[in-house]
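Quick one before lunch.
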Amino acid sequence: MAYTVSKLTDYSAAALERASAELLSALEQESVAVKSEADWKIFRDRWVARKNGVLTQLNDLWLKAAPKDAKREVGQRVNEIKTRVEDVVEKSEYLQLEIATGTPQASDIVDITLPGARRSIGAEHPVIRTTNEIVSVFQKLGYSVAEGPVIETDYYNFEALNFPPNHPARDTQDTLFIAGQAAKAGRERLLLRTHTSPVQIRTMETMRPPLRIVIPGTVHRNDPPDASHSPMFHQVEGLAVDTNITFGDLKGTLDHAMKALFGSSVKTHFRPSFFPFTEPSAEMFVSCFICGGSGKRGAEPCRPCKQTGWIEILGCGMVDPNVFEFVKDNGYDPKKVSGFAFGMGADRIALLKYGVDDIQLFFQGDVRFLRQWA
Ligand code: DAH
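Model of the 3,4-dihydroxyphenylalanine complex:
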């Protein structure tokens, strides 16, 4: 029969001892019988609920009802019992087991027949995917990957690339300078790199020739955003330095790379150009892989190549001897080594490859747009 608190009639020490032993043994028995969370809740409420729990009854039937001269004795007993009861309830063997073994509750039993919760996996961003494709074409040719800081000094971004201070060639790259550097010497001033070319210098400072590297990275220019411009964009740079590197090596390498990227039927075409760090310099075009070089799509004019049949892809050239002068001490004597370099915009290539007509879409983070690459 379940234990109930009965009024005390005898307040002797022996009688108190008996009554409290009876209570505590009932507590033990009921505690051992707890087998589930539901059992435990009933057990807890029965013993410690404010309203009519055993402890509350004890207070009323034992303590309050006790004659004055027994109150002290009874009060002490009730307190001891209270501590013990709370202890047993809190540290119920069932709870201990639960903590130790993680015995599952009805509420967290897993129904393995239910379909799993699908977590959406991100997709590789089209610009990153294009960058990786370009990089891997060159890796297969034996190029290593080099990287450098996005916050760069004037020295690496311009001066060591043969853009002398105040030279008008700097105006072609509208640069974002870090504020508050008036006190610094010009070449130490920090800016957001406008191209990945400074990594050519940084790498030649640490690695001796021969050298073959590709350099992917973000660059910044003070260009207002529109369909084909973004103040932040991506480039892939390349540099090969060895003895007897010729313009023929440049053409052969880049022609191969373009065929690997856009298909074996594309043709390449070079036009003279100017960059301070290459001499001679060129712009390379590929035959339009959208209209096949005809400049037309059916009766419509081909927009990506502006009906010319050619798409400008990159800038390139033979490394200017003045550039080697800056890293001469690390084995780059312009009389002994020669090299070629190139740089292309990864975003522009991604736009062309995927037929996207607005570069802003790449950076707005709209999942409806990005999901197309999932
Ligand atoms: N750094 C140039 C730019 O951002 C691109 C470039 C042109 C890189 C010629 C090169 C190169 O390495 O040889 O406009």
